[in-house]
Amino acid sequence: MRGENVGRASATGPVVVLGFGAAAVSALCALREAGFAGPVTVVTDAGPEPYSPVLTSYYAGGRIGYGQCFPWKDLDFEALIDDLVTASPVEAVDAGAREVVLPDGRRIGYAKLLIATGAHPVAPGFPATAPYRPLVLRTMADADRLREALEGVQRKSVLVAGTSMVGLKVLEACLDRGGRATMLGRSAHILRSSAHPLVAERLERLLVERGVALRLSQAAVSAAAHDGTRGCTVRFDNGDAEAFDEVVLAQGARPNLAFVRDSAVEVREGVVVDRFMRTSAPDVFAAGDVAQALDLSSGRERVIGLWQNAVQQGRCAGAAIAAELAGRAPTRPYPGSIPSNTIHVQDILFSSAGALAEGEGTRIEASEAGGALTVRAYAYRRGKKQLVGFNVLAVATDGGLYGDAVDEIGAYRREILNAYL
Ligand SMILES: Cc1cc2nc3c(=O)[nH]c(=O)nc-3n(C[C@H](O)[C@H](O)[C@H](O)COP(=O)(O)OP(=O)(O)OC[C@H]3O[C@@H](n4cnc5c(N)ncnc54)[C@H](O)[C@@H]3O)c2cc1C
Q1: Are 147 and 113 found together in one domain?
Q2: 211 lies in which domain range?
Q3: Last residue of some domain: 325, 355, 372?
Q4: Stretch 41-67: mean pLDDT, rounded?
């Protein structure tokens, strides 16, 4: 993978990459593809093979095996990385000294640094004082715990707190294991940030038909552990109380940035970066779930938290680092992203992209064809009526297919990209 030697890390150290996920791997590939042949060090708090959080729910639910959660098996990591430091959560970044500090006190100097440490699950709203420790899902260790919890007795009752994409994936894992699932959310509908109410309502109905109980417009006020088991009794703000064998929190994620205490690196919602993923500190870059970037559909800088976004930002950072080390200005800026995702819950497919909020100048159109419900948002951009967001909800037929829905999703995605780029 290493090409001509157009760049070398300076005497001050190697290129150091913190984290070993989608953003880091994409950056490493782009760095070498751009011809950088100098030393590269990767520091990760996990093991020697990068895993994908996207696949963890399928493993927990039994759809795939442990080994299938590591999607980069064909990459030659020896050609990409000179020094891989594992099981070592970075302690601090010292931008002044151009060093990172490891838990054993070791300091590694860098010529360029990429922060790609992703995010961790948080539980806003879940009773913080609960003596009960709910499960979460992000890392392979989390996935192992969830798998073990779901594997046990059939018909386990599981509360999934959170109605986001991750919540739905956890819900699917419970259903796959024969569990009885309840979904809890503060909003009136599930998928508040990506689904139009019309689509959310239909999806809720489909979930109920598959045995899921919904507690919407509700919050947990306490969770008391049962003696001698992993179970707990949860009290809700409407006065109800219910016993569950397991509680899984899927209420969002926050960037892994505890080690960025150096004020030279500006942090708001995530690390603030420019269009080449450069932070405010010299020679420090950031990419993926740890960084905030332009969401083209809202015009806001924010952490996007999606796989494709992490891949693209990682590639942009890797290419920019290689260019700067070769004494050139980077040329391929990150254009911003349009949040877009497709998920399945058993036989149900839900896909969304762009902005769906009704408002001045936005027109919502809904239609049904071939068993799929589609909601499209149109707005006038550059003097033309353009598609700026969509939802597609479809249920697989007996043959496991979704009719025209998949082609439709591809076409809508291209149309939205044209509207924004
Ligand atoms: C259950 C689940 C399902 C998902 N499904 C989808 C989906 O269907 N579609 C989609 O687009 N997105 C999905 N996502 C989001 C997607 O996984 C992320 O957007 C993507 O993984 C971000 O890549 P990243 O490289 O920024 O972070 P990560 O993939 O999380 O990688 C971060 C890396 O940093 C390491 N690390 C963390 N802290 C430290 C530290 N202090 N020191 C050293 N290393 C550290 C971690 O071990 C990891 O190797 C899902 C997420 C979850 C949790």
Answers
A1: no
A2: 140-249
A3: 325
A4: 97
**Residues 378 and 388: beta-carbon distance below 8 Å:** yes
Alpha-carbon distance of 26 to 19, in angstroms, equals 12
Q: Residue 87: give its domain's CATH number.
A: 3.50.50.60
| pLDDT > 70 in the chain, percent | 96
**What secondary structure, in 3-state letters, does 182-241 show?**
EEEECCCCCCCCCCCHHHHHHHHHHHHHCCCEEEECCCEEEEEECCCCCCEEEEECCCCE
Decide if 339 is inside a domain: no
Do residues 264 and 116 both lie within one domain? yes
Atom of ligand 1 minimally distant from the CA of 23: 25
The fraction of the chain above a pLDDT of 90, given in percent, is 80
Ligand 1 within 6 A of CB of 140: no
CA of residue 105 to ligand 1 center, whole Å: 26
Query: Is 172 touching ligand 1 by the criterion CB < 6 Å?
Result: no
What digits encode the pLDDT tens for the residues 145-188? 999 999 875 788 999 999 999 999 999 999 999 999 999 999 99
Q: How far apart are CA 1 and CA 266, in angstroms?
A: 33
1: confidence class by pLDDT, cuts 50, 70, 90? very low
**Cα–Cα distance between 313 and 128 in angstroms, integer?**
34
Other residues' Cβ atoms within 10 Å of the Cβ of residue 322? 26
Angle of helix 140-151 versus helix 165-176 axis, rounded to 10: 40
Select from 249, 266, 287 the last residue of a domain: 249
Q: Are 35 and 5 in contact (CB under 8 A)?
A: yes
Both 100 and 195 in one domain: the answer is: no
| Shared domain check, 259 and 235 | no
pLDDT at 261: 82
pTM for the model stands at: 0.94
| pLDDT computed for residue 297 by the predictor | 87
Question: What's the total number of domains in the chain?
Answer: 3
Grouping H, G, I as helix, E, B as strand and the rest as coil, residue 334 is coil
Average pLDDT over the chain, rounded to an integer? 92
Output the residue whose Cα is nearest ligand 1's atom 4. 54
